[in-house]
Design brief:
By secondary structure, this protein is α+β, with helices and mostly antiparallel strands. About 40% of the residues lie in helices and about 15% in strands. A hairpin with a 2-residue loop joins strand 3 (about 55-60) and strand 4.
Length: about 400
């Protein structure tokens, strides 16, 4: 008889992590294949209102968050010692498991999914790639004198990190990159080839060359046969039926502000072509508060945010709908935190000072709270937001989108 049900995707590293932990405890979990990209049913949301995946169910007991589920499964008897042998080791096991969930998968997931599922954003890919490299360098150094992450035996931390690496090795962490990680590869091969892990993950795929984004081919436009020109109407009819004049196109409210001394296109050009810190020094010298304003955009409903990549897509949608204000707007909007525990905070440079003139062109602008920023007083936050770095309200920057 199954100990409980695990809802998730068989190919998902977080689901595999929970399954592997159950294997070590000798517990049987029934996998209910559930794909978040296809949407979850109303019945599923009755059990798990936020629609989170993976999720666990055993009778009336329900649980979400893969780390919590794996801890619960491993704690049934802790026969395999997956939770550590003492309080200090238990804390370190938690540290490494949460590191893997927040930072390792937090970088690999958006990097891979942005390429495979879109919408593609080069800045997102490069940012996640750099974050993954930084965190893997940290892991490589830690493993230089250790077989496992904590102690002398496998723990759930090893399971999570090794299975997450398998996800990366199959898609973006290619042969050239793996060659720089000898300690990590030794660790990976040790853990992934354990029977309890291999029975879940299978034979790992080690990609030779990292996947890259391939833009879709443009469809060739079919040549249309021009329609025959209509015959001229009789002169008398022309006199009787005069066509109504076309309505003039409404101007953007910022058109009335005239031309500023600092051209916004130059701001965008400087940002694109320079390191952010160098750009920011240039920006501080040229910023004119009489022509532009800096505003903070805070998403009002953070409890509704789930997966980090979905929150990033939410920002992309907002930016798409702000097209009509492109000539008068520049900035960045970032996701801070981890899956199911994140916020969205942006910093924008706008022409003039009227937020509504700029943002009301997007129907979802009212989902944000806008507050003015001061370039000197708020310098650190503005710089970090535009660099996709730092913390906000205690949560690390996970992803960002630029509007330019």
């Amino acid at each position: 008889m199954a100990f409980g049900k695990i809802y998730g995707m068989a190919s998902n590293p977080r689901t595999q992590f929970v399954q592997a932990a159950a294997k070590y405890e000798g517990l049987e979990l029934e996998l209910v294949e559930t794909n978040p990209f296809e949407g979850v049913s109303a019945e599923y949301k009755e059990k798990f209102p936020l629609g989170l995946i993976p999720a666990f169910e055993a009778g009336d007991f329900k649980l979400t968050e893969c780390v919590a589920i794996a801890n619960y499964v491993a704690a049934q008897s802790n026969a395999a010692g997956l939770l550590g042998s003492n309080k200090e080791d238990a804390a370190l096991v938690q540290q490494w498991t949460l590191w893997g969930n927040s930072h390792l998968i937090g970088a690999l997931g958006p990097w891979i999914l942005t390429i495979l599922r879109g919408p593609y954003n080069k800045a997102t890919v490069e940012s996640c790639k750099q974050r993954a490299q930084d965190h893997l360098a940290y892991l490589e150094k830690h493993l230089s004198s250790r077989t496992f992450l904590v102690g002398e035996r496998i723990t759930i931390a090893d399971l999570f990190v090794a299975i997450s690496l398998s996800f990366g090795f199959a898609k973006v962490l290619d042969a050239e990159f793996r060659a720089t990680l000898p300690n990590t590869m030794r660790f990976f091969n040790t853990v992934i080839n354990q029977e309890n892990v291999k029975s879940i993950v299978g034979q790992p795929t080690l990609i030779e060359k990292a996947i890259v984004y391939t833009p879709p081919k443009k469809e060739e436009k079919k040549k249309e046969t021009p329609a025959p020109k209509p015959k001229a109407a009789p002169a008398a009819q022309e006199e009787e039926e005069e066509s109504a004049p076309a309505e003039p196109k409404a101007k953007h409210p910022c058109e009335a502000l005239g031309k500023p001394t600092l051209v916004l296109d130059e701001v965008k050009r400087q940002y694109s072509n320079n390191d952010t810190k160098d750009f920011f020094e240039w920006f501080e010298k040229n910023y004119n508060p009489n022509e532009y304003s800096l505003v903070r955009a805070s998403y009002k409903y953070p409890t509704e945010l789930t997966q980090v990549f979905m929150s990033s897509n939410l920002i992309t949608g907002l930016h798409t709908r702000l097209e009509a204000s492109r000539k008068f707007l520049f900035g960045n909007n970032c996701v801070y935190g981890t899956n199911n525990d994140s916020i969205i905070e942006g910093v924008y440079l706008i022409r003039g000072s009227n937020v509504e003139d700029i943002f009301s062109v997007a129907p979802d602008w009212e989902s944000y709270e806008f507050t003015p920023l001061d370039l000197k007083a708020d310098r650190q936050f503005i710089l970090e937001n535009w660099s996709w770095e730092g913390d906000c309200k205690g949560k690390p920057c996970a992803d960002g989108k630029t509007f330019k």
